[in-house]
Amino acid sequence: MSQAGDGRAPPRAAPDPAVAADQRAAAFLLAVDPVGLGGAVLRAGPGPERDGWLALLRAALPLGGAWRRMPASVPDSRLLGGLDLTATLAAGRPVAERGVLAEADGGVLLLAMAERAAPGMAARIAAVMDAHEVALERDGIARRLPARFGLVALDEGIEDEGVAQPLCDRLAFHIVPLPPGAPDALPDMVAARARLNAVQVPDEVTEALCGAAVALGIASLRAPMLAQRAAIAAAALAGRDTVAPEDAALAARLVLAPRATRLPEAPPAEEPPPPEQGEARDAPKGEATDAPLEDRVLDAARAVLPEGLLAGLGAGLRDAARRSSPDGRAGSRHATPLRGRPAGTRQGEWRAGARLALVETLRAAAPWQPIRRRGRTGGPRLLVKREDIRLRRFEAPQETTAIFVVDASGSAAMHRLSEAKGAVELLLADCYVRRDKVALIGFRGRGADVLLPPTASLVRAKRSLAGLPGGGGTPLAAGLDTARGMAEACRRAGRTPLLVLLTDGRANVARDGTGGRAQAEADALDAAKPLRIAGVPALLVDTAPRPQAFARDLAAAMGARYLPLPMADAARLSGAVRDAAA
Amino acid sequence: MDSLPGDHGRGGEAAAVSTRTKTPRARPAARAPYPFAAIVAQEEMLRALLVAAVDGSIGGVLVLGDRGTGKSTAVRALAALLPPMKAVEGCRFGCDPSDVAALCDACRGKARLRAIEVPVPVVDLPLGATEDRVAGALDIERALADGVKAFEPGLLARAHRGFLYIDEVNLLEDHLVDLLLDVAASGENLVEREGISIRHPARFVLVGSGNPEEGELRPQLLDRFGLCVEVRTPTDLPTRIEVIRRRDSYERDHAAFCAAWEKEQAKLRRRILAARAALPAIEVPDAALERAAQLCMALGTDGLRGELTLIRAARAHAALEGLSSVGDAELRAVASPALRHRLRRNPLDETSSSTRVDRAVGELFGP
């Protein structure tokens, strides 16, 4: 039903009816308490599964509530609100426009392509969800607008793409929808909503949910909090005034299990292997009732832990490179030339493509209004002349992403890797001002791994770089292919990639994973050419004791600067990269 | 594009605007924030916020940490906790009537200043705020309606003498960071735009929170914060259960929960007032000054700001504890938050700044 971390749930042979029933229950719970539960992450592409769940949710929600859909790329003026151009011009005085978040008040907001939402946008939405209101401080307007809504993040991410963590953390349910099963009769939602605030939570339920969260390795305190809200909603739906063990078990399956980062310790030996979900669901009678509530809650969560949880946790990173297959899926939306850091406004002519700085224009026009109106009767109340027009200026994006592609093969691997790691951290340590990012790809044995996806966070870099593998053959072509994928992804995100290839140039593993120097070198040259054609700035650092002819050829093939640096150390390396990026 | 109800009637809009201009400090009725006194654990963060509330000259607090640790809850709770302050009646910058040197131009021109009691402003700077609302700008309403060039104060003016809070401070746009850096350093906001040239006092305690995993903070901005605390999710089960329990009862009935905690809140409020009153008399013996200098030298912090902050924070902490002088224990209590963000970075050193401070403190003060 759901999955943890960033791994993709393995395809299932047949949808589990118990899991499908849980998913339907999640829709009802959310409809009972959308604000308290925050919402849901639906991880699926468009299709009957997703539509089915959404239809169920919509049917269960009160009639007439907002049901808004929002793309992941809305500008702040639409997200939060601002000055309404048309109305302001018509009225001759500032008129505020509500943003999508305020418009969704009292209903449900669907965030389409949620995995593409930038961290800044996720943080804005999260702040509004916490405060239950939009703090509008834009375009000369200061307002507090109520915004109580449930958020459904439609996550179409593949592999390790996913919804930004601040949002995931606040949304109770993380669901990979199954085909909609037989529709349940709609429970009495009105009665459930009325009962919600009166439902009592026994202490042992709180304790059990907190204990289960710890056992599953869930750090955030929002998880047990949301699980408790879910249990309360479940009790209200079932017509109970007190949360029952089965409510807590349902909450654990829906809220805690998808967030698990580790498997709980094995149950005591006398217990049978993980119980069937069906059993855990309707086991108020029988043996399970004798077990302490905490164990039952934990068992419930354990029963629905995604298969291969632990394998999936580590796999996310390694698959990261493949997400950038050049299918153009994410593409051209970012291709607008008018992006980057806002750098004030300028006077100018408003032509197609230019971005009007509305407020600045109005401000420029405002002081002249009484004079311009003099001697006129009627006509528009606001007179804007050509010289008032102000356009937005943007600074061209200067952020670069330095992609280190490190040859981790053979005996020099450990040395090269640790120098590359040092260079990564040195670069990160002084690149805040320019908001640069750094990534690290290692290739060895039969393929290439993304060891550090592009990041500006030193904290994360240190964590990812803690243990690096080394040794094996030299699949240069695979390393270049992975690097090209990442470079393209960077371009799509509006950043300038810079490849830094550290190798001694002794390719000996071909693309198909077989050995053989000649084929490996041919493949490497083959993989290098698209880089030159794409115009990816690159630097090839030859770490061999003596400069290699093949490395020089490779540099030429990929259009890279060639830099023999037999004793490449972290400081010199980061210096060279800085020079290349400047 | 629909507009707000009430925007269409001219009267509605004008009324809304005039309330805002006349009483810039009025906060719209929202649900009561979670009581400060009811926050579980996170002692270091709470102490730092209280220290900043006692001595505003310490220079603000940065709270870094994991998701869901109550960073923003604590900062917002501070607003409700702070005792009211005296301000010049009718002054839109909330000037302090007793501090003649720092009056704004309008107040300086007045013959007599009437003082009123106002709540200490705790102003939120939301992500997505535009520069004109932060710094203040030409009042479009009055310009459009009356053709008057009037200055409309922004968030910096509202935060004067209070707190300016930025959640997710590491995601703040660069141009706003530049603006903040300048104002936070000079205590004065200079607005030069649209033919307006105005300067007004803007001294506030900067409070920021964020998660370092989402991006690093600019070193210049980091330096503006007097104290830097790191919060972790509590790992022991009873604490976690208590957090959930209190949060749940708060969510169910804000009013009842706040009423139940009002006694504790009042106690804390009295403690802050007493500490503020006692602050000037707190003695800092030469031995403590020497200790602070030794500690900063051992850690190799840049400049004197570290030492100064350390001493001030220790003094405010002593005042909160009801002591009359600063000793080793007080220096110890605030050493980590005062110094951990001032260490010269060595990216290749795996040990965290907190560990380095703790180690230096241990070597100097004994275990």
From TrEMBL, chain A:
SUPFAM superfamilies: P-loop containing nucleoside triphosphate hydrolases (SSF52540), vWA-like (SSF53300). Transmembrane segments: none annotated. Pfam families: AAA_lid_2 (PF17863), VWA_2 (PF13519). InterPro entries: ChlI/MoxR_AAA_lid, P-loop_NTPase, VWF_A, vWFA_dom_sf. It comes from the Bacteria. Residues 265-276 have a biased composition (Pro residues). Residues 278-288 have a biased composition (Basic and acidic residues). Residues 401-581 form the VWFA domain. Residues 264-288, 318-347 are annotated as: Disordered. PANTHER family: MAGNESIUM-CHELATASE SUBUNIT CHLD, CHLOROPLASTIC (PTHR43473). This is Mg-protoporphyrin IX chelatase.
Automatic annotation (TrEMBL), chain B:
SUPFAM superfamilies: P-loop containing nucleoside triphosphate hydrolases. Pathway: Porphyrin-containing compound metabolism; bacteriochlorophyll biosynthesis. The keyword Lipid metabolism does not apply. Gene3D superfamilies: Magnesium chelatase subunit I, C-Terminal domain, P-loop containing nucleotide triphosphate hydrolases. Residues 1-11 have a biased composition (Basic and acidic residues). It is an enzyme of class 6 (ligase). Residues 1-28, 345-367 are annotated as: Disordered. Its EC number is 6.6.1.1. Pfam families: AAA_16, AAA_lid_2. It catalyses: protoporphyrin IX + Mg(2+) + ATP + H2O = Mg-protoporphyrin IX + ADP + phosphate + 3 H(+). Keywords: ATP-binding, Bacteriochlorophyll biosynthesis, Chlorophyll biosynthesis, Ligase, Nucleotide-binding, Photosynthesis. Residues 57-235 form the AAA+ ATPase domain. InterPro entries: AAA+_ATPase, AAA_16, CHLI-like, ChlI/MoxR_AAA_lid, Mg_chelatase_ATPase-isu, P-loop_NTPase. Belongs to the Mg-chelatase subunits D/I family. Involved in bacteriochlorophyll biosynthesis; introduces a magnesium ion into protoporphyrin IX to yield Mg-protoporphyrin IX. PANTHER family: MAGNESIUM-CHELATASE SUBUNIT CHLI, MAGNESIUM-CHELATASE SUBUNIT CHLI-2, CHLOROPLASTIC. This is Mg-protoporphyrin IX chelatase. It comes from Roseomonas fluvialis.
